Every structure is written in C-alpha cells, then in structure tokens.
C-alpha cells in the first residue's frame, strides 16, 4: 500500500476501535451493577412503601417493588432503543458517511453521560433519556467501526468478530463503576470522566476514521483520516437513493452481427453479408429468414425452446456480446 495508509495507521485504527467498543458502546448491558449504586443513592426511593408484613426480626420493612419496576423499565426502554434504532442509524451511516454518523453518536453519548452525572434522586426520571441516548450512541459507534475490517483484506471477518466481542465486553464498565463507588469515588465524577472521553472519540473521528466509508476491496494507495484521500469514484459500492445508473454495474447485453469462422459451422463456407445485410455462407445459402416462411417459423420455435441459444451458433447469425 505504497502511498496509502501504512500498517501502523491501520493497526492504530484497529486497536483504538477495540478500545472504543470495549469501553463505551454496550455499557447499558451492565445495568444491574449500576442499579446497586443508584439504589444506594436513593433514586426512585419515593416509590417504596412501608410493608404491612413484619420482617423476621419483628420490624416493619419497606416494599420497594415500585422502585424495582422503575429500574427495570429504564433498562427495558434502553435495550429496546439499542435494537430498534439499528436500522435508522444504519441508514444515516450509509447516507451521510462515517464522520456525520460519528458526530451524531458522540453527541448522544455525551448527552447521556451528562444527564446521569447531573441527575439527582429528585430527578430520577432523567435516567430514562440518559440510558436511551447511551444505547443509541453506542450502537452507532460500533456500526461505524465494523468497516475497519476492510483495511485488513482476508482478515476482515476476524476483525468484525473482535468488535462484536468488544461490544459485549463493555457491559463490565458499570461493574467497574460499582467497585469504584464502593471505594469512595462519586457517581458524578465517574460519569463526567466518561463524558470527557468524547474528546477522544472526536479526535479518532478526525484522524483514524474515513470521511465516507472504507471500501472493499481496498483500492490501491487508499488513505483516510485528516489529510487522507477519499476513495475513488465507484469504489464505495451502491448507496441508498443513488441518482442515475450505477457506474460499475454490468451493462445490458446487445446483439452483434458478425461473420463466424468457417470452422464454427461444419460443412459451410465463410459467412459474408448479402445486399440485405443478411449473413450468407460461401455456398450462397442465406442465413436469414423471410418473415412468414416455414423456415422462419421453425426458427422462432427453436428460439423459444430452452435450447434455443444453440440456434445462433448453428445458423451463424449472431452471438451475445458485452460492449
């Protein structure tokens, strides 16, 4: 890849993408660990009711089933958005390219982390939009990273598998948040740190990701990122709402009349055009047919038969060719 993206740049894109997917994209699936922290802080605590049934130590407890239902609803909506928004996010990615899609993802992710950071037990309802934004932003980030496999040719399937595994592994982030909270770190400080990481996402978008998409197969001397050259015209494959004919599509076949070698028709002389433009053999035998003649009817029957393609070779009339 002389003149294009070198191996070091491609490996940097790969490794930074693995870190991005493994630390940010699917963190909502570690929700159970974050619930422990939120309960300790008193989120949705107003939904707990005194229990009418005394506990084994003869003290009245609290029925917090309403609180648990709210936490379950937050996760249900967030995980639903993660799957439901995959298609519209994919349309945005295909239509507007990598840079635009990642800027949307970074905005959603930053907004979600800031909502959690500045939420309070009195504003527990902010968890609903926050988790949905984190979920949609994460799925859009991994969609833009899947194309990195195109940089490695025959290893592209392995790269895509690694990114999928990193996406699932990111559920451990909320477990780390829980452990750090038990060590005395505040929830606000941790989510402000996650929000600050959006600057790293932005820098990676500028320098280690393409403006449009990474084509496959990779064109010679292909480069990407800030200062990189865009992919050649027609190398990106078909896109949604493409205007006009697709330039790399195979053209429709056309019929070309030409003289076939004498060896193509056993026992016949060379084929020459007559005054009417019909192909005739060296013996003077007309290879065309007069409309309405019995011979013309037989030709139409053979053309409509499954083996009708052999008619052109036998009669030496024409062949199918590509321009």
From TrEMBL:
Record-level GO cellular component terms: membrane
Membrane spanning residue stretches: 12-37, 71-93, 100-120, 126-146, 158-181, 187-207
Keywords: Membrane, Transmembrane, Transmembrane helix
Topology in membrane: Multi-pass membrane protein
Region (Disordered): 266-301
Position of the signal peptide: none
InterPro entries to which the protein is assigned, alphabetical: MFS_trans_sf, SLC43A3
Compartment list: Membrane
Tree of life domain: Eukaryota
Keyword Amino-acid biosynthesis attached: no
PANTHER family in the record: EQUILIBRATIVE NUCLEOBASE TRANSPORTER 1, SOLUTE CARRIER FAMILY 43 MEMBER 3-RELATED
Protein name stated in the entry: Solute carrier family 43 member 3
Organism lineage: Eukaryota, Metazoa, Chordata, Craniata, Vertebrata
């Amino acid at each position: 890849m002389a003149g294009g993206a070198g191996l070091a740049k491609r490996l940097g894109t790969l490794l930074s993408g693995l870190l991005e997917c493994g630390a940010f994209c699917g963190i909502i699936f570690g929700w159970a660990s974050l619930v422990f922290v939120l309960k300790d802080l008193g989120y949705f605590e107003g939904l707990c009711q005194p229990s009418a049934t005394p506990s084994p130590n003869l003290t009245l407890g609290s029925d917090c089933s309403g609180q648990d239902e709210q936490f379950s609803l937050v996760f249900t909506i967030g995980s639903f958005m993660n799957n439901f928004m995959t298609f519209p996010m994919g349309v945005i990615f295909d239509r507007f390219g990598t840079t635009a899609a990642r800027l949307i993802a970074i905005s959603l992710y930053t907004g979600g982390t800031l909502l959690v950071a500045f939420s309070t037990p009195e504003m527990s309802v902010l968890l609903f939009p926050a988790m949905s934004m984190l979920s949609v932003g994460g799925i859009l980030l991994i969609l833009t990273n899947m194309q990195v496999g195109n940089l490695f040719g025959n290893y592209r399937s392995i790269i895509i598998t690694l990114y999928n595994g990193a996406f699932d592994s990111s559920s451990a982030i909320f477990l780390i948040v829980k452990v750090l909270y038990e060590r005395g770190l505040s929830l606000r400080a941790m989510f402000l740190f996650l929000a600050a990481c959006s600057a790293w996402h932005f820098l990676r978008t500028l320098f280690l990701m393409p403006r449009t998409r990474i084509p496959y197969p990779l064109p010679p001397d292909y480069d990407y990122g800030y200062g990189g050259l865009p992919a050649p015209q027609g190398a990106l494959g078909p896109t949604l709402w493409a205007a006009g004919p697709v330039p790399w599509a195979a053209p429709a076949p056309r019929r070309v009349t030409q003289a076939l070698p004498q060896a193509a028709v056993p026992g016949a002389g060379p084929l020459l055009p007559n005054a009417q433009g019909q192909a005739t053999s060296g013996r003077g035998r007309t290879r065309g047919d007069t409309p309405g003649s019995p011979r013309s009817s037989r030709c139409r029957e053979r053309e409509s038969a499954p083996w009708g393609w052999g008619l052109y070779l036998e009669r030496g009339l024409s062949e199918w060719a590509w321009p």
